[in-house]
Amino acid sequence: MTEREKGLSRRSFIGKGIASIVGVGLGLSAAKDLKAAAGLAEEQQSTAPHAGKPAIMDYRDLGRTGWKVSDLGFGNAMIQDTALLEYAMERGINYVDTARQYYDMEIVIGKLFPAKRDKLFITTKLLPELFTGKTTAEEITAAIDESMQRLNTNYIDCVQVHSVGEDPKLSDAEKIKNPNVVTAFEKAKKDGKIRFWGASSHGPRMVEDFDWLLDNTSIDLIQPGMNFMTKGLEPVLAKARRKGVAVVAMKSLAAARKIDYKPFLTEGQTVRQAVIKWTLAQPDIDCVAITMRSAEMIDEFVAASGKPALSPDEKKALKGYGMLLDKDYCRPGCSGCLAACPHNVPIADILRYRLYFASYGEEKHAMSLYRKLPRATNAEACASCAAPCEGFCPHGLAIRSKLIEAHGELTV
Ligand code: SF4
Ligand code: SF4
Q1: Which residues is 96 bridged to in the sheet?
Q2: Beta strand 68-70 pairing with 72-75
Q3: pTM
Q4: Which residues contact 178 (CB under 8 A, 6 or more apart)?
Q5: Can you tell me the distance from the alpha carbon of 288 to that of 247, in angstroms, rounded to the nearest whole number?
Q6: pLDDT above 90 for 50
Q7: Per-chain mean pLDDT for the chain
Q8: Phi, psi (deg, nearest 5) at residue 235
Q9: pLDDT digits (tens, 9 = 90+) for 357-366
């Protein structure tokens, strides 16, 4: 390992959050197994060999944009300097996923510009709360200008509406049906400020909102939360492909960041690689954007590039891992239980924040998202509720206890 890589390694987040994920929503013996698996993962990650660096092996057409992008894209909302991103670029990554909401990430990326501007396809997302049924085109233009300034660039490859398809009870679709959205993005394209525009979602109306955007607007890119445990998005992805709209998958690791499943795998493989390969093997995916927190993690993920076929070992690991998560993981795009809550608690959102807190090592981010919820609809109401929501979850999640736990963690 070079001195630079050692530095990158020291800045990694390995180890945070393992204790919290293992205890959440699992029986004692399953939790023990997970804890052991997590321990193995940590040991494996900290001693992994780094000779013979892996490199991106596949560059895919990004819809109709004309770009060929690495099959894996770089994300990291907590990035403090450019070192990790430069390391990812050395491995061949040329797609970067950021957002105005991701603290200083836009500013950090901007430090590489103008020198390396033409080496990267940058997609950023404007603040989710910017978009309502009443947002003006001028407000959207001002937000694009702000992101351009933060990114230290005179154009952005793609600007997205952040988080469409959220709580259906909030008539969220109004924000994408606001004609000022398309007007502002098309004008920004004409003015040369942006090349393309898109939308991201992991919300319960994800399928419906992407479908509407594909049918009714000039959208160029969609970024869905999807992984081996999600279902129902396939027709929308196929439609995007037919229309030449780029598809970038996110949340593809499910909760796999802190866990390995070594007993099922041959030496040198990880469950996270298997999960990534599953997503890369889906027919309508152009790129998988993943949070990369260390040089080791980049090497681990990049080693899965260009090899979407799963080995029998990996298939077994994926099955075992899926069973482990089955009753704990709230699937992006599912809205099964939401209408059953008399208090309009945004169940899927809170369970996602809980995942950020317990599994992604993004405690601060998770707490700040939770703080933004109106008090009347946060999970405080669950303490004295008979939990009618639970009867509607097709996966049998113990929603009430998970939300009570999340409330405790996210309000500390
Ligand atoms: S347990 Fe919580 S989320 Fe479920 S119905 Fe009651 S208040 Fe709503
Ligand atoms: S808790 Fe269950 S039913 Fe509710 S959104 Fe999540 S996966 Fe769907």
Answers
A1: 74, 122
A2: unpaired
A3: 0.84
A4: 131, 132, 133, 134, 135
A5: 9
A6: no
A7: 85
A8: -60, -35
A9: 988 778 888 9
Express each pLDDT in 30-48 by its tens digit.
Answer: 333 333 333 333 333 333 4
Cis bond upstream, residue 168 (ω within 30): no
**Tokens representing residue 402 in the block:** 């998970």
Contact 275, 226 (CB under 8 A): no
Break the chain into its structural domains and give their ranges.
59-318, 338-410
- Looking at CATH, the fold of the domain delimited by 59-318 is given as TIM Barrel (3.20.20)
- Residue with the smallest CA separation from ligand 1 atom 8 is 341
Ligand nearest to the CA of 389: 1
pLDDT at residue 156, rounded to an integer? 98
Report whether 343 contacts 381 (CB < 8 A): yes
Number of H helices, E strands in the chain: 16, 10
Query: Best of 345, 395, 400, 401 to mutate for ligand 2, by most ligand atoms within 8 A of CB?
Result: 395
Angle at 38 between CA 34 and CA 44, to 5 degrees: 145
Q: Where are the alpha helices (DSSP H) in 70-118?
A: 83-90, 105-110
Tell which atom from ligand 1 comes closest to the C-alpha of 381: 7
Nearest CA to ligand 1 atom 7: 382
Identify the band that residue 173 occupies on the pLDDT scale cut at 50, 70 and 90.
confident
Tokens linked to 346: 């945004």
- Strand duo 59-61 + 95-97: pairing: unpaired
Please give, one letter per residue, the 3-state secondary structure of 217-272. CCCCEEEEECCCCCCCCHHHHHHHHHHCCEEEEECCCCCHHHCCCHHHCCCCCCHH
3-state secondary structure of 287: strand
Extended beta strands in 24-132, E state:
59-61, 68-70, 72-75, 95-97, 121-126
pLDDT at 74 (0 to 100): 98
Q: Residue 103 — left, alpha, or beta (φ > 0 → left; ψ -120 to 50 → alpha)? A: left
- How many Cα atoms occupy the beta-carbon half-sphere of 407 within 13 Å? 19
The total of other beta-carbon atoms located within 10 Å of residue 27's CB is: 9
Which listed ligand is nearest to 376 at the C-alpha?
1
What pLDDT sits at residue 383? Answer: 95
